[in-house]
Amino acid sequence: MSEPRSDATSQLPATPPATLPPGRYDEAKGSGLGGKAVAVVLALLVGALLVASAVTIYRLNATPEISGEEIGVTVVDDGRTDLSLTVTRDEPGTAAYCIIRAQDQTKGEVGRREVYVPPSESGTVQVEASIATSSRAFMGDVYGCGDDVPDYLRR
Hints:
Elements: H1 33-61, E1 66-77, E2 80-89, E3 96-103, E4 109-117, E5 124-132, E6 139-146
Antiparallel strand pairs: 1-2, 2-5, 3-4, 3-6
């Protein structure tokens, strides 16, 4: 067997320079400005969608400015529990509502009610409410409060 020599020339045939088929590509169109415009419009749409998504997520996850806390619970009988609660708002002129509930010893819910909290001049107000129960309650609590008051609660 013979060993390849370093001074030997390649035996491969020479390749002709690459040429494009005539009429397939129009060289007179320029730099493709239409494609760039579409890319810019798509980039702006994606950016607007991202901003809208961020604003929506922020609004849905914003910390509520209204809080409620029970200050007293009285189990009247097997069908009723009275609850005293305080509601604190950053904007007292805004109407609010709270969901209160009664629970049995196993923490099973035996009653629930939504309580309307009208606008006031004070940031913290005290509210008294009764909850109708399906059986004897052991405790009562404030499930949560908000300012998106349903129409049926407005007086």
